[in-house]
Amino acid sequence: MIEKNYQPADIEARMSVVWEDSLAFKAGRPDRRDAVPFTIVIPPPNVTGSLHMGHALNNTLQDILCRFERMRGRDVLWQPGTDHAGIATQMVVERQLMERQQPGRREMGRAKFLERVWQWKAESGDTIINQLKRLGASCDWSRERFTMDEGLSKAVVKVFVELHREGLIYKDKRLVNWDTKLLTAISDLEVQQTEVKGHLWYLRYPIEGKTFSPEDPSSFVVVATTRPETMLGDTGVAVHPEDERYQKLVGHNVILPLVGRKIKIVADDYSDPEKGSGAVKITPAHDFNDFEVGNRHGLRRISVIDREGCLDLVDNEDYLRDLPEGAGEFAEEFDKVDRFAARKRIVERLESFGFVERIEPHTHMVPHGDRSGTVIEPYLTDQWYVDAKTLAKPAIAAVRSGETTFVPKNWEKTYFDWMENIQPWCISRQLWWGHQIPAWYGPDGKVFVAETEEEAISHALGYYVEQEVITAEQGREMALDRNKREGFITRDEDVLDTWFSSALWPFSTLGWPEDAPEVQRYYPTNALVTGFDIIFFWVARMMMMGLHFMKEVPFSTVYIHALVRDEKGAKMSKSKGNVIDPLNLIDEYGADALRFTLAAMAAQGRDIKLATSRVEGYRNFATKLWNACRFAEMNQCAVPDGFEPAKAKETLNRWIAHESAHTTREVTEAIEAYRFNDAAGSIYRFVWNVYCDWYVELAKPVLLGPDSPAKDETRAMVAWARDEILKLLHPFMPFITEELWEVTAKRDGLLALAPWPLQRTEPTSEQLAMLAATTGTTDPLVSPAWVLPIFDHADFTDPAAEAEIGWVIDLITQIRSVRAEMNIPPATLTALVLAGASAETRERAPRWTDVIKRMARLSDISFADRAPDGAVQLLVRGEVAALPLKGVIDVAAERTRLDKEMAKADADIKRAESKLANEKFVANAAEEVVEEEREKREAALARKAKLLEALERLKQAS
């Protein structure tokens, strides 16, 4: 029996155990052995992570797809797991050591430190997995993977070795994002661009061969920079090829101030004649754009800042080469000075020699490490790279050909923009936690890449014997005796970028490179649900690796969801204090209410403005469903064996069957098209408006009346429609629906495994021919459901029942609307005249007179050839219904009230439009503030439209 009050926490705890004990979510269940697979891989959350609102949205949408396809009979694998999150996890453990005043990782040594990280992972690594379970995620938890599991690590090593063998992984000296605090390269995703108020320094660079004088502009070239400290590494000055001011100077040299080095003036499109002086200093070792300019013109790369962000001059051979006599003293003065302290001192020195023309305030974006908070330094260093340009070509072609499609489709442009301009991918990180690079170095620095150390030793010994560095006899002895080769080769200390291992996620989690049956069955996957911010970092790299190693795209569809913002549209951040914790919402309102809120607001291409009030509203929706099911139970509503809703005789019951079939089609097609908000909106309307507000209310006289065949049928239909609701709602609100299914539906088995109301049937030969002509295949199971709706079971329609019950509902709704507009008290009953009614209306009206009078608060219903004078006329499905309100309302007072409301609406519209017409406001105000004004205007316009309609009706009553 259903409890009186809906208590989400009790239900969620109980249902989680039921699902787990029954292995409901296990892929490869015996009953699904012959079913078509449906696979989704979870975007692996960081092992350090805790459930945030982005996770809640992402996993809710994935779960809707998985539960939907599971109910459609597919063999669903939702592959769960976590990412080792190299830099984040290492920081967590290092912080713990510091807080506990224990030795740091350097003091501990690599082996001991890694033991400590694994220990932390064992203790705390399951936090987010347990939180995902609280959300209701129906993953196959028995298959949970971790990116540093033994099998996944084997896949990582194999991929690295094979790509290196093919020349697609190599070592190179290039610029990277360098974190001077964490002392490692980091990815672009770990860099935050922060607006900083700084300065723009205009510096005079003397022209070679001319006597420098600050008063003589012909003796120097002015360059502008935000980073004077990097000028020590300048190796060129760039001007635009078409800039007439500098054309005669191209190819000549300027003298680098303070240093005295001669550097060339080059012509390059990178220089913008409209900005600053039109000339820019080129520091190839300290700026990503300058690096490319330097490559185009063969400029030297001189790094003058070290790993820790200090000037590196005294022992820097690159810097000291070709310096004029005496420049070394300057190097000693500034060596090992922090870059920002050096900036101030260098500017002072430049000013003293007249090399500073002017200094201007300048606000610009400066890259910061998202974890360390330090300013990121473009740093020239040896790193391992993937030839992403080569790997990207098949991945681009796969999306262009439609093998993989993006939803919404506009994200394909973003994908192409990134992929067609892709740079080499830096995959090495100067960390200890992660997949250590499988490369070993010989005594002369020769690199040996291999899957194991033994294999690397074998390659190294063979190489050095061949080079006659060691004798063949020494080689044999070293091969047989580990002690004799100790230290002969040393392993690269760096680890791989976390995105390298997660790029293999769709197939490494299935057991690749072993010949695992799961790889054949579940790869490629069907859909990937992810955020737009990792299209390049993760989606693109999975595409590249999947196509290269599996020869197939890793997924056929990529659904890109939007951001979850606060209720005003602002991005959530700890600094703003507007972060909403999904776990708090689950505690207060239940997981189902949160899930339904996120789904209902997940419109394609539109960010979600999350207000707690919306979650509370959907908690009320759950309560409404709960109470409707209790009402059905208390009225002995149950589905008898063999009940067929299509054979119902009562018009009301045929109408609910019609509406149920219509909703089933809407929900099914919306989920298939990734229109989660439309699917949620359709089921919400059906539950609240159609089933609860109308069907149950219209059925009450029968249910509460004497026993009869009509009552028996209505009881069965109330229960049948309830069961259909539970099925349709289950992917969105799994906990409450599973509980109600168990308590009220009295079926064998779980709702999670029950059949979806709309299933494909066996096609006829004619339908197969149509399928072949449409899709090129005769297999309906591999054809998208929306291609052939002819296979749908939910095809019941009854236009006559819809016309009759629809007329009753529309009539009552419009009368209620007029009563609300005119401020007619509930106790005041009004008359209704059906004017010029058709024979059909004259025939159906008596059947519903009592219901209409009760629900519309009417005193009488009559027929007339025309509407009485002074009556408000309503057009209901093409026919006139009139409400004689003369004497019922004070027309003058009502007009005064409506006029006041109209004036207020006009004022609100004018106020909002005035702000939106102000270009400065639109340009400078926060995005969410501007959007709020737009919403205020739209709300006021909608209010005005309703008031105009009410005033027009009032004219009829006067």
UniProtKB/TrEMBL annotation:
Alphabetical keyword list: Aminoacyl-tRNA synthetase, ATP-binding, Coiled coil, Cytoplasm, Ligase, Nucleotide-binding, Protein biosynthesis
Record carries keyword Electron transport: no
Superkingdom of source: Bacteria
Cellular-component GO terms for this entry: cytosol
Residue span, Methionyl/Valyl/Leucyl/Isoleucyl-tRNA synthetase anticodon-binding domain: 653-828
Intracellular or extracellular location(s): Cytoplasm
EC assignment: 6.1.1.9
GO molecular function: aminoacyl-tRNA deacylase activity; ATP binding; valine-tRNA ligase activity
Motif 'KMSKS' region, residue numbers: 571-575
Motif ('HIGH' region): 45-55
Domain Valyl-tRNA synthetase tRNA-binding arm: 890-955
Catalytic activities: tRNA(Val) + L-valine + ATP = L-valyl-tRNA(Val) + AMP + diphosphate
Domain Aminoacyl-tRNA synthetase class Ia: 18-610
PROSITE patterns: AA_TRNA_LIGASE_I
Entry's Gene Ontology BP terms: valyl-tRNA aminoacylation
Record's keyword annotation contains Transferase: no
Residue sites binding ATP per the record: 574
One family name in Pfam for this protein: tRNA-synt_1
Any coiled-coil regions, as ranges: 895-957
PANTHER family the record matches: VALINE--TRNA LIGASE, CHLOROPLASTIC_MITOCHONDRIAL 2, VALYL-TRNA SYNTHETASES
Subunit-structure text: Monomer.
Family statement: Belongs to the class-I aminoacyl-tRNA synthetase family. ValS type 1 subfamily.
Function comment: Catalyzes the attachment of valine to tRNA(Val). As ValRS can inadvertently accommodate and process structurally similar amino acids such as threonine, to avoid such errors, it has a 'posttransfer' editing activity that hydrolyzes mischarged Thr-tRNA(Val) in a tRNA-dependent manner.
Comment, domains: ValRS has two distinct active sites: one for aminoacylation and one for editing. The misactivated threonine is translocated from the active site to the editing site.
HAMAP family: Val_tRNA_synth_type1 (MF_02004)
Protein's name according to its UniProt entry: Valine--tRNA ligase
Organism: Bradyrhizobium frederickii
Gene (UniProt): valS
